[in-house]
Amino acid sequence: MARSYTLYNLRIILVLTFGSLTFGYSFSVISNTLGQPGFLQYFNLNTNAADTNAITGAINGLYCAGAIFGALLTGWMCEARGRKIAMYLASAISILGGALQTGSVNIAMFLVARFITGWGIGMMVVLIPIYQSEISPPSARGFLVGQHGTWIVFGYALAGWSLDPGIPSMAYV
């Protein structure tokens, strides 16, 4: 059977999958980060086990809460402003959240940044398959939209990947 999609369709799909990769990576990389002694020491989390457990739970919970808000906002945003504008906004929010996480000077700032990142990523995880399905020809829609999930899993794998078993993760190189 002949290919029913063009290279143009495939290029757009592959560019969109960077958002899927970002979702998988940012959701998974925190598990490696929370185990790093330098992270715990920087935010003074290793002094009280109960407080540390509550804060690490909040780090994951706020990310997921942000993703829920982002996903819920996406439906309205797509109808009000269009899918491309919503995707631009989701990208900007994700970049802002990632930058704030990277530059966090205290745990409160890091928690807020995780929420913001989750918000942008929640928008992306809803927007990407919608847009992929709209630009895919019907005969190849399953293959092209399926790239979304494939790249999410690749993002998860990338977050924990290491060339040397002695190196905890590539995220810290």
From TrEMBL:
The Swiss-Prot or TrEMBL record describes its family as follows:
Belongs to the major facilitator superfamily. Sugar transporter (TC 2.A.1.1) family.
Question: What is its subcellular localisation?
Answer: Membrane
Where does the Major facilitator superfamily (MFS) profile domain lie?
A: 12-173
Membrane topology qualifier: Multi-pass membrane protein
Q: Which keywords fit this entry according to its UniProt record?
A: Membrane, Transmembrane, Transmembrane helix, Transport
Q: Matching InterPro entries, A to Z?
A: MFS_dom, MFS_sugar_transport-like, MFS_Sugar_Transporters, MFS_trans_sf, Sugar/inositol_transpt
Know the name of this protein?
Major facilitator superfamily (MFS) profile domain-containing protein
Q: What is its main location?
A: membrane
UniProt superkingdom: Eukaryota
From which source organism is this entry? Cryomyces antarcticus
Q: One short Pfam family name for this protein?
A: Sugar_tr
- Where exactly are the transmembrane stretches of this chain? 12-34, 54-73, 85-101, 107-131, 143-163
